């Protein structure tokens, strides 16, 4: 190309700023990524990828209001954008709006059933709603009298002391940890997707929990007065079961938390 030629190399500043922001976001440098995304949107205030990436960065920084505003802007331009719907659902889930998140995951699943994150999101929202709903026997009256409500929430000292005395009488019951169930009821394919490489350890702990539970039931049904040495075996099995529950609960909660921070599984390594 000659020096006097009018031809000039093409340069798109929006794409350049966006590419830099993508690189910074992959390095988890979210604040720096936001700076370049602001420059990109200043050049083109309708650049959908920049809005989506900025919303994702805000979500990672737990700035859910800003993340929600950006993804809603995208949905104004493209109401059926599956990536925007997935991001919107994850933001609702992070905020604790499980019903809104569930509806959005359902919309995305109908729109794009091939994206399995929508199915995972539906299941985790249903689990969160089920865990959040507890049977409350206290009902507020029409005159808004909160006396019974607060008495149930904060029992009087005398009642609490009497309850403590009743608990300490006789043989102490087993601790809740001894009776704790296995921590999850998710389908295996979803659990494998959430846990990635930790799924093999999780299944091993689940088998260990089942084996120790069966052994405890057999030992408790036996006559321990005839064979006192079985007490040591029973206690050891209880400790093994508690250990399995602790480790399994940790893996399950860690996988769920990691998925909240990385809803697109971009940094998740799964077993092939």
Automatic annotation (TrEMBL):
<dbReference type="Pfam" id="PF14559">
    <property type="entry name" value="TPR_19"/>
</dbReference>
<keyword id="KW-0963">Cytoplasm</keyword>
<keyword id="KW-0206">Cytoskeleton</keyword>
<dbReference type="InterPro" id="IPR011990">
    <property type="entry name" value="TPR-like_helical_dom_sf"/>
</dbReference>
<keyword id="KW-0802">TPR repeat</keyword>
<dbReference type="InterPro" id="IPR040111">
    <property type="entry name" value="ODAD4"/>
</dbReference>
<keyword id="KW-0966">Cell projection</keyword>
<keyword id="KW-0677">Repeat</keyword>
<protein>
    <recommendedName>
        <fullName>Outer dynein arm-docking complex subunit 4</fullName>
    </recommendedName>
</protein>
<dbReference type="GO" id="GO:0005930">
    <property type="term" value="C:axoneme"/>
</dbReference>
<dbReference type="InterPro" id="IPR019734">
    <property type="entry name" value="TPR_rpt"/>
</dbReference>
């Amino acid at each position: 190309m000659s020096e006097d030629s009018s031809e000039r190399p093409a340069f798109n500043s929006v794409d350049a700023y966006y590419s830099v922001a993508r690189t910074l976001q992959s390095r988890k440098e979210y604040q720096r990524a936001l700076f370049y995304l602001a420059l990109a949107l200043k050049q083109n205030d309708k650049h959908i990828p920049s809005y989506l990436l900025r919303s994702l960065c805000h979500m990672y920084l737990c700035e859910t209001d800003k993340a929600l505003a950006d993804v809603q802007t995208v949905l104004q331009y493209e109401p059926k954008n599956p990536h925007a719907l997935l991001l919107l659902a994850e933001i609702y889930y992070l905020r604790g709006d499980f019903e809104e998140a569930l509806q959005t995951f359902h919309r995305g699943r109908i729109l794009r059933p091939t994206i399995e994150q929508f199915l995972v999101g539906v299941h985790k929202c249903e689990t969160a709603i089920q865990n959040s709903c507890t049977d409350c026997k206290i009902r507020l009256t029409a005159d808004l009298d909160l006396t019974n409500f607060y008495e149930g929430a904060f029992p009087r000292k005398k009642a609490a002391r009497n309850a403590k005395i009743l608990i300490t009488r006789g043989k102490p019951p087993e601790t809740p940890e001894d009776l704790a169930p296995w921590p999850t009821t998710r389908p295996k394919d979803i659990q494998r997707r959430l846990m990635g490489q930790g799924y093999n350890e999780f299944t091993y702990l689940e088998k260990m929990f089942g084996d120790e539970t069966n052994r405890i039931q057999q030992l408790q049904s036996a006559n321990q007065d005839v064979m006192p040495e079985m007490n040591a075996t029973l206690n050891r099995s209880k400790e093994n079961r508690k250990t399995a529950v602790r480790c399994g609960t940790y893996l399950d909660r860690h996988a769920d938390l990691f998925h909240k921070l990385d809803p697109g599984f971009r940094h998740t390594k799964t077993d092939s």
